[in-house]
Amino acid sequence: MTSTDAAIAVRALEADHAKRLLRSYHGEDKGDEGDGDEEDDEEERGVMTPEQVRKWGLKAKKWVNIDKETPAPMVEKLTGLSGAMSFKNQEKYALFMDYWKRKNP
Known about the structure:
This protein is mostly helical. The protein has helices at 38-45, 50-65, 71-78, 87-103. 47% of the residues lie in helices and 0% in strands.
């Protein structure tokens, strides 16, 4: 469907022209026999470092004290398009809830 004032006509492409981007998280797909980079794997999964905890702790304080956020909108902000929170966002939410519970017992 094209608007009457469209500068360029648009048509649907056939399904065989569509690009598919696939991502594999399996080490064996890459021929990886285990290279001992468990720390890198942990970081990808979302385990926060102490610096990140401090950084997000300060942001969580700001969310509670200055922005006056409540838990429900924070869940919406930290939830991705898939409808589930990533592990890092779960940790951010836990920091937020810690400060929020201190202020709102």
